[in-house]
Design brief:
By secondary structure, the protein is an alpha/beta fold. The protein has one domain. Helices cover about 45% and strands about 15% of the residues. It has a four-stranded parallel sheet, with helices on one face. Helix 2 runs antiparallel to helix 3 and helix 4 packs across helix 5. The protein is globular and about 35 Å long. It starts with a strand and ends with a helix.
């Protein structure tokens, strides 16, 4: 099972494995508060894509398309395969820092992992 959650939200026992999927560390969040099991920077959008998107919901569909292209590269593909294996046996929580719960990279990653989990 894969779920997504803001890194600023209170950690819970139901989170299972907690993986941060941002390229940069979330502002004002300590490592103790985040309680991460891993930080997968290679799964975050490139700096150029992140800056272009700027969390503008009007750019969401184009961002999603470009981000999926980035995730198709060998290094992210391997990381996604590993997370998919984890999600088949335990709860996996993808953590993100953005305030928009519907338009962020964790949404795209969850969709991708969920799809691969079913295959």
């Amino acid at each position: 099972m894969v779920q997504i959650k803001r890194v600023y939200s209170e950690p819970s026992a139901q989170d299972g494995i907690r993986i941060l999927v941002d390229r940069v560390w979330p502002r004002g969040c300590t490592k103790e508060r985040a309680r991460l099991d891993g930080w997968q920077k290679e799964l975050a959008p490139s700096t150029a894509l992140r800056k272009w998107f700027g969390h503008d919901p009007r750019k969401w569909h184009e961002f999603r398309s470009r981000y999926l292209d980035e995730l198709a590269q060998p290094e992210p593909r391997k990381a996604i395969e590993n997370l998919t294996k984890l999600a088949r046996s335990q709860t996996l929580t993808l953590l993100f820092g953005a305030s928009d719960l519907k338009h962020n990279q964790a949404v795209v990653l969850k969709e991708l992992i969920d799809r691969e989990e079913r295959e």
